């Protein structure tokens, strides 16, 4: 009996110890479950917030997509409008290009003809210049001969004037004796002298005018 009682008592103690151990284990399990549940709730709340953020971003993306679609439609409309304008402008440019090519062909022909005309004009100008230079050279030589002739006439006139002055001096010595003759000779001398001076003046004026004319012609040729 005593042994049975001791054994029963030991069984009760073991059972109580086991139950206390299981209780402690159950408490740990419950605590862990509570912690897991709280963490799951926190994760669910974070996930919900993340989903809310994603939904907001999705709304923004959809609005942006809508704006982009509207902009794309406007761009397509503008493109079609510009394409029609481009086709029209391109056609005009092609027409103008053909017109320019035709004009260029005509211009090339005209340029060729103008070059030939210019060449003929240059040759004609060269021949004219040579002819004028030859003419001026002959005229200048003739004028030089005329000037030499005039100069000889002037020298002769001066000599004649000197001779007449000598004669006048001789007549002056005889004036008291030949007063009437002296007066006549002085009048004749004066008349001859005036005639010579007038002729000399006309020759000098003609010579100066001719030199001026030749100089003007020479300047024109030099400018050309």
From TrEMBL:
Residues 9-78, 140-174 form a coiled coil. It comes from the Eukaryota. Keywords: Coiled coil. This is Uncharacterized protein. It comes from Glarea lozoyensis (strain ATCC 74030 / MF5533).
